Amino acid sequence: MFSIRPLDDDLDAVREAHAPGSPVLDVDADFETLPPAAAEDLGLFVDGLSPASFPVEWLPDEVPDLLRKYAGPTFTVGLPGNGTVARTTQTDPQSVLVKRRAEGTPDDFLAFLIADRLVQIGVEPAPGSLPEETLPDRLPESFLPFFGERYRDLDAAIRRPDPDTGASTTGMGPSDVFQIATALFDAWVGLYTRDAFASWEGTHPRLFDAWIDAGDRLDGRLGELAGEVARGETEFAGATEYACSAVRHGLDLPAPFAALDTAAYRDRGAPYAVTWAEKTVASMVDAAE
Description:
The protein has 289 residues and is of the alpha+beta class. The chain has twelve helices and six strands. It has one domain. Helix 6 crosses helix 7 and helix 7 packs parallel to helix 10.
């Protein structure tokens, strides 16, 4: 299921700087969530396993099944939206997992994705930016421990449930909340990692160029996102995902997404994200009336 992935010199240097000892593993399958038996096999490559589970009270009544399973006591790794390369905090040391779909990814971009995850391992979040229940000295591996009990607040902000029926008044459902939460978490992580990417210009030119190229591919649509949402051409969840993916590239974001590219979000974390969602969705509802 897993095998050690040989690393080129630049990636090995990034690992030494940010994640010494962390294994980078090829996975002989694509996955959104690794089942327990496969996840336990990670123990062959690390010093220990620390399976995570999260309070059921963090979850709204309606959530995707994979999220409920991930939050429960069963040892699983990964969620939809983790991408071609995933990182897990549930091993000691943390691990980077390269999914089988990586076989179709251009070499330099794949190298950047691996480097990105290695940089994430070395990040120390700002004090107070994570819930008390989350380990304060490392980035969570997913949005759920990032939001903690505030995930219910995010759900309420996005779906704006009818007080009598509980039905969404915005037309957005649990999958939209999941997608937006993933995007907001990715943006927050990007606020921590992008300085490392920018520093590679003279030391790791292949990785730096891949970071720049990926940003260039995103830049063209950013200015149109708000208009696309207003005209119904792009769903709000998809626009949020697109804008948030640009944060790690340091691109100029349009309103209302520009508020996510701030030191305040970096330092305050989930409470800031929930407030942003409340104000943004309320503004969209008002504009539609």
